[in-house]
Design brief:
The protein is of the alpha/beta class. It is 37% helix and 18% strand. It is built from 16 helices and 15 strands. Strand 14 and strand 15 form a beta hairpin. Helix 5 packs parallel to helix 6. The longest helix has 15 residues.
Length: 416
């Protein structure tokens, strides 16, 4: 018997110690003397019952267990033969907002037509043969500017794919009228993500809609419409150093209005140092933890949901690594990530090109730092775009918050 290499140890108040196993999700709290007895003493001095207890809770494993090999095996399997192919379809690069931080800034406005849409349907069906489930995410620009094509592709896939299709959409929410929301539900699109940048003044300045009749109130109303029609709504709250107060007001308002709706969720996102380079507006661990705690405080999520969304065990990395993960442009070109739309890996007409660019993304390599990290089961090697130097972030976003998130999970009456 031996200790798991994925035990994460966090010191609590008054000599208590939390141990979280990042491979299995097991979490226990020990008094200091108990912790020393189990984890710092010679393992041969433990009784058979004690050893069995630790093994049952996955803090100890058998001598012949190779946990790293197990994680790498599952990771490699998900990269090479993923169970759920994922397709992010960029139906248009056109947008009705002019966000100051947009990573697509300067891209020519192009919208997908039926010729490309037909090829997209055929490509997805061919790539997904034998798969019981696929994911399709609608993306833009503002995808609802090309809702007809979304409907055309969706109906084509619904008619011909034998398995389950999990549809989602990333939208600014400006066109989410009652009729459009009902159309999404009819098509089987069940989940949407909408980005808010703060309260009214900050949001309208940042979004800078071409149609000035689109206001913060428009989006707020449309969120309510979407929820009323049965859509699940995830709000991403973008923030930076200059918008901390505004984002705080926004989350408090979201809590008052939507915390009782089980189809509503929300998460904070530091806009600089992620998709955009770090700058004087960049924030750090303290600000992100503040917003995570605020979401729990206002009732939008509970500590367990926050913990599992940040530290839930994963079988594999993001779709950019996957041999069956593709970003499809309005002209039908295939890419591995929306961040890198320079060199394609094929197109929907001729299929995948297994070229140098493809294997640059779909790659089993893992740094020694990742292989030896106790967060590997929940991080899976981090962001591939970051590893390739295309983004300023490589590790999981919440890496610096792990110990704080573990502490949030411990009931206050046993923290110390």
């Amino acid at each position: 018997m031996k200790q798991s290499i994925y035990n994460r140890v966090v010191n609590l108040d008054n000599n208590n110690v939390a141990v979280y196993n990042t491979l299995t999700g097991a979490l226990s709290v020990f008094e200091q003397d108990e912790y020393k007895h189990y984890f710092e003493n010679d393992i041969s001095k433990l009784t058979s019952d004690e050893l069995e207890c630790m093994k049952r809770n996955t803090f100890f494993v058998s001598d012949d267990t190779d946990e790293l090999a197990s994680v790498l095996f599952k990771r490699q399997k998900q990269i090479l033969t993923p169970t759920i192919p994922t397709y992010r379809v960029l139906v248009t690069t056109a947008c009705n907002a002019r966000c100051s931080y947009c990573f697509e800034k300067g891209i020519e406005f192009v919208s997908m037509d039926k010729r490309v849409a037909d090829a997209v349907i055929e490509f997805i069906l061919k790539e997904s043969q034998g798969c019981p489930k696929i994911k399709v995410q609608w993306f833009g620009g503002e995808p609802m500017l090309n809702l007809d094509i979304i409907g055309y592709i969706t109906e084509g896939l619904n008619d011909r794919f034998d398995g389950d299709i999990m549809y989602s959409m990333i939208t600014n929410g400006s066109l989410l009228t009652i009729s459009n929301a009902r159309e999404l539900v009819r098509l089987g699109i069940k989940k949407i993500q909408i980005t808010l940048d703060g309260d009214k003044a900050v949001y309208e300045e940042r979004k800078s809609y071409v149609d000035k009749n689109i206001t913060f109130e428009t989006i707020w109303f449309n969120i309510g419409v979407a929820l009323a029609e049965g859509l699940s709504v995830v709000v991403r709250v973008n923030y930076d150093k200059s918008t901390m107060t505004s984002a705080t007001h926004l989350i408090n308002s979201l809590g008052r209005c939507f915390s009782n709706n089980e189809k509503f969720s929300c998460y904070p996102f530091p806009i600089y140092g992620t998709y955009n380079s770090r700058s004087q507006l960049s924030t750090g661990k303290e600000q992100l933890l503040f917003f995570q705690k605020l979401l729990v405080k206002v009732g939008i999520i509970d500590a367990n949901q926050l913990f599992r969304s940040s530290l839930g065990v994963k079988d594999g990395p993001c779709m950019a690594y996957s041999s069956k993960g593709f970003f499809i442009s309005p002209t039908g070109e295939l890419f591995k990530c929306s961040i890198d739309m320079k060199d394609n890996v094929g197109n929907v007409f001729d299929g995948v090109r297994y070229n140098k660019k493809f294997f640059e993304w779909c790659n089993l390599d893992l740094s020694e730092a990742c292989r030896s990290c106790d967060l590997l089961p929940v991080c899976q090697g981090g962001c591939r775009a970051g590893a390739l130097g295309k983004l300023p972030v490589t590790c999981m976003r919440d890496k610096d918050l792990v110990d704080d998130l573990i502490k949030l999970m411990i009931p206050s009456d046993i923290k110390g």
